[in-house]
Write a structure and sequence with these properties.
- The structure is a single chain.
- With about 260 residues, the protein is of the alpha/beta class.
- It is about 55% helix and about 15% strand.
- It has 2 domains: about 200 residues, Alpha-Beta Complex (2-enoyl-CoA Hydratase, Chain A, domain 1), CATH 3.90.226.10; about 40 residues, no CATH class.
- The strands form 2 sheets. Strands 1-2-3-4-6-9 form a 6-stranded mixed sheet, sandwiched between helices. Strands 5-7-8 form a 3-stranded mixed sheet.
- A hairpin with a 2-residue loop joins strand 1 and strand 2.
Length: about 260
């Protein structure tokens, strides 16, 4: 089994770790297939309630391993095929009902932006840097960047990053809305675990479906989204977990109302 991406599942938490630190976790052909396979495994595992996406080494992900692809003898058709494989993994995770938090350090470049944005909540080290670099080497965005980046920061800002040789600092990324939190590097992993733990300790499935509704809603007609919302809240309302939580909420509301009127 490949170790280019590690997967560890314990007590409802799946940890997915990019593990090619010598290559700044850039994805080559083999790693792309591993990413898709792990995405399938994580999203089909009913025991998984939350996911942490992180990386070994000094960088989160430098995107596609252009050097490995260029020296492999592969042509454009093979690159396109690999992009489709990686895209399946991104789509599988992003549209699933598993909430994902990313712990990000160091450089995030090119397709690494798309892989990072597969996560629903991103905690970045204050030393993290974010850059496109596609056009600098004559290539175009892939790995979801042309969709996920403007969804996160808006079209104009996405174009600024893609059409200029610009590097965002962690603080700029926070200001743009590219990441949710910026912390000292030593605190990032712990904070990601805290967020995942919050999901697992509470109504895990409800958080997951809220994420799914938002992600899928971007690409569907409004009426279809409303139908999905109606079906989802009805299905959740009938679960034992929801009934228990709703009853507790109602009891607390009655108690507060009684105290207020006393």
């Amino acid at each position: 089994m490949s170790d280019s991406i590690l997967l560890h599942v314990e007590r409802g938490l799946a940890r997915v770790t990019f593990n090619r630190p010598a290559s700044l976790n850039a994805m080559d052909f083999e790693m792309g297939g591993r990413w898709r396979d792990i995405a399938r495994a994580v999203t089909s595992d009913p025991s998984v309630g939350a996911v942490i996406l992180d990386a070994a080494g000094p960088a989160f992900c430098a995107g596609g391993d252009v050097v490995a692809m260029a020296t492999s003898g592969a042509g454009g058709a093979a690159v396109t095929e690999t992009a489709h494989v990686i895209h399946e993994g991104i789509r599988t995770l992003a549209l699933s009902d598993k909430p994902i938090v990313a712990a990000v350090q160091g450089a995030v470049a090119g397709g690494g932006l798309g892989l990072m944005l597969t996560a629903d909540y991103i905690v970045a080290a204050d030393s993290a840097k974010f850059v496109s670099k596609y056009a600098n080497i004559g290539l175009t965005p892939d790995l979801g960047v042309s969709t996920l980046l403007p969804a996160a920061v808006g079209q104009r800002r996405a174009l600024q990053l893609l059409l200029q040789d610009r590097t965002l600092s962690a603080e700029e990324a926070l200001e743009w809305g590219l990441v949710a939190e910026v912390l000292p590097a030593a605190e990032v992993a712990g904070r990601a675990e805290e967020i995942a733990g919050f999901w697992l300790a509470n109504a895990t499935a409800a958080f997951g479906h809220a994420k799914r509704l938002v992600r899928m809603g971007a690409d569907r007609p409004f009426a279809e989204n409303l139908d999905d919302e109606a079906a989802s809240i009805g299905a959740r309302f009938d679960t034992p977990e929801s009934q228990m939580r709703v009853a507790a909420f109602a009891a607390a509301s009655r108690k507060a109302s009684t105290k207020e009127n006393a």
